[in-house]
Structure to design on (419 residues):
């Protein structure tokens, strides 16, 4: 019996040792040996291993060192030195790091890169002491331009020139209060824009600000310039100093189509009888984010089983206006009665709760308690430039206007660097 017991214990120990062997082998296989040489004072060779990774949720600097089996003495020294150049509590999830260690698991160096331009480094010198440095990699800014005429979609036209959807979003955000880019653009519309693009070592890394933008919608020209007013607040204005930002967005979501318009007498698709439809239904995939079209306070939340299902209401800063959102699948995190919401904050998600034949948002707009057609509201502009600011604004924007005119004719697709 004792022999069997000892054999069982021996087998268990063998399994544990084999598991540890493969665990260590897997860890080393994720690293790359970059060099081998004898450190000063040693007669044997040590392998120097470079590892790279990203910071995971809940992971600290100590955790990063631990999972790479750095010895405790080096962890203590390295963390202490790192604190002198960066607060470890501010380490960001998804940020990249690199470290070099020797085969005795002693840390040689560690690099933390929270963004594309900044690297925080700690490195051990010949005497075994760590020191920290901060390296800033400057970006090169170029002013670029793109123009074209719509033959299918704005998205297709701009991406065909090698630009990314991020630039398209930045462009449409400027005009979102005046143009509903999901239904209003037509074949033959044209556009121009000048924008900042940033490069690192000759490689494009990010877009900056759009400096000037134009869109011709069915013959109506919209031209916007970015300008910092004397209060230090930047925004987009037309040539006369009127702000492009309005009190309400054209629509509270990205939708595929309007499935039902505002009507005093509509045949209900489920009840099969004529009754008022005092709102607009935006058809969109289930789960599509719904945003607040203007600043306000959530005043009501609930569920109408035989009507709009899960809904909420927002009373806006101009207390004459209240908006309702129906058939929601769910509310967004943090949304509850009494919460203040800013324009474009996600408040919920498209669903088909209540009486609905498919996923859509029911959107009702009230003025002084009376439902009105949200597609026909007289939108109010944000504060324009003060009269005394208009002349300096036009003086500063004149070079941008001239550059826009230099861009090739709208009927010719163009993309390139201006300066």
């Amino acid at each position: 019996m004792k022999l069997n017991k000892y054999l069982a214990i021996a087998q268990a120990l063998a399994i544990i040792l084999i598991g540890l062997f493969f665990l260590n082998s897997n860890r080393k296989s994720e690293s790359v040996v970059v060099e081998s040489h004898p450190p000063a004072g040693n007669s044997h060779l040590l392998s120097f291993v470079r590892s790279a990774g990203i910071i995971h949720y809940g992971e600290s600097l100590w955790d990063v060192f631990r999972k790479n089996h750095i010895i405790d003495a080096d962890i203590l020294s390295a963390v202490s030195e790192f604190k002198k150049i960066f607060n470890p509590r501010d380490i960001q999830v998804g940020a990249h790091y690199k470290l070099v260690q020797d085969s005795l698991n002693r840390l040689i160096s560690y690099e933390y890169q929270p963004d594309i331009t900044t690297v925080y480094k700690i490195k051990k010198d010949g005497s075994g002491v760590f020191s920290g440095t901060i390296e800033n990699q400057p970006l090169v800014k170029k002013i670029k331009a793109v123009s074209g005429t719509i033959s299918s979609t704005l998205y297709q036209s701009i991406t065909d020139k090698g630009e990314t959807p991020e630039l398209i979003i930045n462009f449409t955000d400027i005009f979102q209060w005046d143009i509903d880019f999901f239904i209003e653009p037509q074949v033959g519309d044209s556009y121009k824009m000048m924008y900042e693009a940033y490069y690192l070592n000759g490689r494009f890394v990010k877009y900056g600000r759009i400096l000037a933008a134009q869109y011709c919608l069915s013959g109506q020209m919209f031209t916007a310039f970015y300008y910092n007013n004397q209060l230090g607040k930047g925004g987009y204005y037309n040539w006369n100093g009127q702000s492009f930002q309005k009190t309400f967005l054209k629509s509270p979501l990205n939708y595929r189509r309007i499935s039902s318009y505002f009507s005093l007498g509509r045949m209900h698709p489920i009840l099969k009888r004529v009754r008022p439809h005092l709102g607009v239904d935006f058809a969109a995939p289930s789960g599509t984010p719904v945003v607040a079209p203007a600043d306000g306070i959530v005043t009501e939340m609930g569920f109408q089983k035989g009507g709009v299902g899960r809904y909420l209401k927002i009373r806006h800063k101009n207390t004459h206006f209240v908006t309702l959102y129906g058939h929601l699948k769910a509310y967004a995190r943090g949304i509850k009665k009494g919460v203040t919401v800013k324009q474009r904050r996600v408040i919920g998600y498209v669903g088909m709760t209540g009486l609905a034949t498919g996923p859509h948002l029911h959107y009702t707009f009230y003025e002084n308690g009376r439902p009105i057609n949200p597609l026909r509201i007289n939108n109010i502009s944000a504060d324009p430039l003060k009269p005394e600011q208009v002349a300096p604004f036009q003086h500063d924007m004149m070079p941008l206007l001239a550059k826009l005119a230099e861009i090739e004719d709208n009927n010719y697709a163009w993309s390139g660097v201006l300066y």
